[in-house]
Input
Amino acid sequence: MEQIAEAATISQSVRSFYERLPYPPPVADLDAQRSLCRDPTRRRALFHQVWPTEPRREDHEILVAGCGTSQAVRYALREPGARITAIDVSEASLLHTRRLANRYGLDNLELHHLPLERVQNLRRSFDLIVCTGVLHHLPDPDLGLQSLRAVLDRQGAMRLMVYAPYGRTGIYMMQTYCRTLGIGTSDTELRDLGAVIDALPSDHPLATVFRRARDFRRPDAMADALLHPSDRAFTVGEVYDWLDRCGMCDGRSARGAACQARSAPAARCDGVASRHDGVAQLRHVP
Ligand SMILES: C[S@@+](CC[C@H](N)C(=O)[O-])C[C@H]1O[C@@H](n2cnc3c(N)ncnc32)[C@H](O)[C@@H]1O
Output
């Protein structure tokens, strides 16, 4: 009972966080990326990255779970022949997504205010499920992944991204600092936190992330990294154990897996994976 109450509190605080600070930082348009989204060579490469041996088709059912402010619109622009369904718990994020969709007159995108743990309420199944930067924020990532798997088509694939620990060492140090001092997400607190980060020595573990991540200086990006109420990271081995636990490697779901989590801040798995044994050595990567 206590665990259920705790999970509900975490879900509520994650939702409130993204109502106040939608992430990624909202953009007014995607004009610059539009031609890239539609580039036929890139689209073909992205298709075969997920379905290496299958003939191209365009009429996919795609779920973008935890779509944030613009991701689902990018997919809808890129895949005009597909139906994109996007869900999120943050109305503010959905509002930004809706504005962008209206700007481009997209009629292949539908939005739902729905936690991914309840995605089965849609009573649909999907060829491709995209869930990047979301599962590591859930109180129960297993429940989240199992819920997604339950709506994955038999030949379907998932594109997942979760945080990896090592590249985020500096971030976790700063999260502890922020929690210890009780730093919140007000404008003043975020400005002061920016000044603290500016004053960090160049050999602080956060400095690399700071240099690499172009948008880290933005208050909303800084808050997402340093003040998030719920965030955990997975090693490569933990990713594989997690996929096993959630029934993702039983031969039902498709194709090869790729994980790059050794030093990067995130682990990506594309087209998760029955041919799992081919990359089994990755389990032993720390
Ligand atoms: C870091 S953002 C990532 C957005 C998007 N996937 C991307 O990569 O651009 C995380 C998003 O997940 C949403 N989210 C968090 N918990 C969720 C849940 N249980 N169900 C659905 N969406 C959730 C948040 O509201 C937020 O929009």
Summary: The chain has two domains: 2-163+232-281, 167-226. The pocket of S-adenosylmethionine is lined by residues 14, 18, 23-24, 66-68, 71, 87-90, 93, 115-117, 132-134, 137-138, 224 (CB under 6 Å). Residues 58 and 246 are 29 Å apart (CA to CA). The beta strands are 61-65, 83-88, 109-113, 126-132, 152-163, 266-270.
